[in-house]
Amino acid sequence: MRFEGELVAWNPDTAFGTIRPAGGGEEVRVSQVAFPMDGDIPHLGEKLSFEIVTGRDGRKVAAQVRRLPPPKRDSAFIPLRETKGRRRPRRPRTMWMLVGALLVLGVLGMAQWKASHSKDLAGMSAAPTARR
């Protein structure tokens, strides 16, 4: 009979871990040799399907372990708690837009000031000087 559960402990040095059955009950030991030879190492929290057999020492152990595919989700709906580590789409940076607007206003203001004061500046240089 097959059971489903989650890998709750894994020691890569000894190649042994523990699976917690989804329906409850006592945790079951699992060895690296029970996993499929797909080249992928066991990961904590991984959902698994397995059979329970009695080991040489008389304890229950998992055998013929299969990895379960992750549940499919609607891509339009992502719960808020799962968006924490994800990057948000890039949006224009408000600060840089503000800096750009201030720069444009500064250049326009300088041009306006120069145009309004050019007559005064021209008049000052054309003013007659007293000669003796």
Automatic annotation (TrEMBL):
Transmembrane segments: 94-113
First and last residue of the signal peptide: none
Domain of life: Bacteria
Keyword Membrane attached: yes
SUPFAM superfamilies: Nucleic acid-binding proteins (SSF50249)
Gene3D superfamilies recorded: Nucleic acid-binding proteins
Protein name: CSD domain-containing protein
